[in-house]
């Protein structure tokens, strides 16, 4: 989580929402990123989606990995997390009504989409 907070500081220094994300698999960081939606003028450039892309671009599939992020993944990021079959998500702060664990749009935790398989474990620090 320490690295997430460092990345969040970088995001904040660039005028972005202070969010950082790190993906760990077998004890190794395979992807990391910070929020870049404003900088890249692309709403999909959240820290979590960019961390997933970073892992994929480095040649490591994130299935079975743990994602650390300082803020609860939103609905957009939750979809990507489920698609790539992240095994666990650890975060520090809830995102409010747009958070992926919140009813009625709890994309991150629902068991109603069979194509995604089991929901990731959720850990709140």
Protein architecture, described:
Helix content is 26%, strand content 23%. The protein contains three helices and five strands; from the N terminus they run αββαβαββ. It has one domain (1-124): 3-Layer(aba) Sandwich (Cytidine Deaminase, domain 2). With 125 residues, the protein is of the alpha/beta class. Pfam families: dCMP_cyt_deam_1. GO terms for molecular function: hydrolase activity; zinc ion binding. This is Nucleoside deaminase.
What is the chain-wise order of helices and strands? HEEHEHEE
Query: Share of helix among residues?
Result: 25-40%
Shape: globular
For the biggest sheet, the summary is: 5 strands, mixed
The percentage of residues in β strands lies in: 15-25%
CATH homologous superfamily classification: Cytidine Deaminase, domain 2
Any idea how many domains? 1
Based on the structure given, which CATH architecture is correct? 3-Layer(aba) Sandwich
The overall pLDDT, averaged over residues, is 97
CATH topology: the name is Cytidine Deaminase, domain 2
CA distance, first residue to last residue: 9 Å
Strand order of the largest sheet: 2-1-3-4-5
**DSSP strand tally:** 5
- Coarse structural class: alpha/beta
CATH top-level class: Alpha Beta
Q: What's the alpha carbon Rg, rounded to whole Å? A: 13 Å
